[in-house]
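<instruction>
Derive structure tokens from the sequence

<record> Sequence and structure tokens follow
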Amino acid sequence: MPSMQFLVRVGPDDAPTTALRIAGHVAHRLHAGLDGVQIVPLPPAAFSVPEAVPMQMDTVQRQFTHARERDAWFAQQLESMNLNGRWHAAQGDASTVLCHMAAAYEMLILARSDEHRDTPLGYGTISRSVFGCRCPVLILPEDMTNETCGERIVVAWNGSRESTLALRGARPLLTRATHVRILDGSSDAERVDPMRPPTLHLQEWLDRHDIKATIEPFQPDGASGPAIEARARDDNADLIVMGAWGRSRLAELVLGGATRHLFGQRAFPLLVAH
């Protein structure tokens, strides 16, 4: 019986998807189980004329019935990846469903569509899910072609609550990675906020969990987001681990920030926590 269980959001058709492919790879590597969920959205009542509501609800019910009947398909996918798990179908607002379900899992895995760039303005499904979930969220570019995720990792760490949660959530991946580089911006954060609570002793935590990592002081001349992305590219990384919204989402929207920048890039998967 796996000691960890992950949840991946699956689309409405049976075509192979990035989310399921990479979720299977990560779950297999970490000896975890993998559950899947398809979420059927309800029609926006505010934009519906009364005459159309019965037809819309009939469509939703047919979609939900189809979703519930995909358990055999999902079981076949798991069997091909030598994994165990369960299939779920749900109705409603996607982020609300995901935040509710993710409370029972060690990781939530989502693909970010390039068609609707989900930058963290607070309204997109992925942004709202990260903000509301109480587990790490692995965000994958929808057109990701890499077969690996979590073998070469760059961690953006500044001692904040959010970055520490992300570090802790990534521990199973960090212990198995072939390369880990930690960009340590905590000294700069302490200078900005000298009254903040004591932060994690990073090297002691790494030693306690037998994680081999290179710790590199991180004080970029410009914005943090592009600098983190450039360092990950230099390292040929296949995952960036970071806290999301170390400051408010409004400040990120107005001022910009690492979260906003990295949510908008297409090159690297992100493992984030808030």
